[in-house]
Specification:
By secondary structure, the chain is an all-alpha fold. It has 16 helices and no strands. It has helices spanning 2-14, 20-32, 49-78, 80-113, 122-144, 150-160, 162-165, 173-188, 191-200, 208-222, 229-233, 251-260, 269-293, 300-309, 319-333, 341-350. α5 (122-144) packs antiparallel against α13 (269-293) and α14 (300-309) crosses α15 (319-333). Residues 186-360 form the Letm1 RBD domain. It is a single-pass membrane protein. Pfam families: LETM1_RBD. The chain crosses the membrane at residues 138-161.
């Protein structure tokens, strides 16, 4: 009886007599169609704080990119020369930062797996070698910037002397060619001096056959002939001991060889010998790793960089000739023992001085 009164009361409220079952179905239909009491809840209320932070960061990054693009267009229109320098500087910073991260990954991998430098693949060895040289140059700039307000002077010096103070990442394409030519001209000045020393030591060679080979080699050098690989390897004994062994080189010889390797010659004899030994050993290790990889696996830029490091001015030589020359170098280098590395040091001059296209 009570249930019947409730049903009739509900029916009166809806304006018609509706059975209880129909009322429940009708109520469910209203709920499903969204006609419930109160405003619908916003979907934003269901976002987590972490999602809100991500959306905010995305918004800020997007706005920053838009502002940066406008700033670049403004510089390009009103200050074109400064914009070129600015672009090169920013790209250089990005490349240097990428090099730093790669070097860190390599060093971390070496530490985790107890790998030595000479056990690395060729590209990783070369990356670490070049990065160390770049960091040394950057540290020098950092030291100059330490005094108060000295950073303004450093920026001026970087603009006036980019070859001496900046690494290759901050050079323009034209500067890279010009500066490499300048560096090669500087090391080329030491070539006659090194050949003169080789002629002077001929009487000091005890073996008559080696004396004849050395005289023939020097004569070929003087007449502009490129020596064959076997002509150079025939003299390996002379460079293992007296008079041309690494420990028997005189101070003036080491200064000339340092200039040929683009190393500073203004150091005491002990330091000069140590630097030449270290530099030649690293090149010898690189050569062994490169022989495992194969010259054919290198890109054109990698081939030219490898040749330039070993004494050849590869900026004006065709890629195929560079590959041929690098193959000759590896044939000599991989045949030498650690006690004969003085020959590898002199090979910077012997193999490059008369090569076709390198006399610039």
């Amino acid at each position: 009886m009570a249930l019947s009164r409730v049903c009739w009361a509900r029916a009166a409220l809806w304006g018609s007599a509706v059975p209880p079952g129909l009322y429940v179905v009708r109520r469910l239909q209203f709920v499903r169609s969204g006609l419930t009491w109160g405003a619908p809840r916003s979907s934003k209320l269901h976002l987590s704080p972490k999602a809100d932070v991500k959306s905010l960061i995305s918004y800020v990054v997007t706005k920053a990119k838009v502002i940066n693009g406008k700033y670049h267009r403004f510089l390009g229109r009103h200050f074109p020369r400064f914009y070129v320098l600015y672009t090169i500087f920013m790209k250089g910073l990005q490349m240097f930062w990428a090099d730093a991260k790669k070097a860190r990954r390599i060093k971390t991998n070496m530490w985790k797996h107890n790998i030595k430098f000479h056990q690395l693949p060729y590209r990783e060895m070369e990356h670490l070698r070049q990065f160390r040289r770049d960091v040394t140059k950057c540290l020098f700039l950092g030291i100059l910037s330490i005094p108060p307000f000295a950073n303004y002077l450093v920026f001026l010096l970087m603009y006036l002397f980019p070859r001496q103070l900046l690494i290759q990442h901050f050079w323009t394409a034209k500067q890279q060619i010009d500066f490499l030519d300048i560096y090669h001209a500087l090391r080329k000045q030491s070539h006659p001096e090194i050949l003169c020393y080789l002629e002077k030591v001929v009487p000091l060679i005890s073996d008559a056959g080696l004396q004849w080979h050395m005289t023939e080699l020097c004569a070929k050098m003087q007449h502009g002939t490129h020596p064959a690989v076997h002509d150079i390897l025939a003299l390996r004994e002379c460079f293992a001991n007296h008079p041309l062994g690494m420990d028997q080189l005189r101070a003036l010889q080491m200064k000339a060889l340092s200039r040929a390797m683009l190393l500073t010659p203004y150091l005491p004899s002990v330091l000069l010998r140590h630097r030449l030994k270290t530099h030649t050993t690293v090149i010898h290790q690189l050569d062994k790793a490169l022989a495992k990889l194969g010259v054919g696996q290198l890109t054109a830029q990698e081939v030219k960089s490898a040749c330039y490091l070993r004494g050849l001015n590869s900026t004006h030589i065709a890629e195929e000739r560079c590959r041929t020359w690098l193959g000759e170098w590896l044939q000599i280098s991989c045949s030498l023992k650690e006690t004969e590395l003085s020959l590898l040091l002199h090979n910077v001059v012997l193999l490059s001085i008369n090569y076709v296209g390198s006399r610039r």
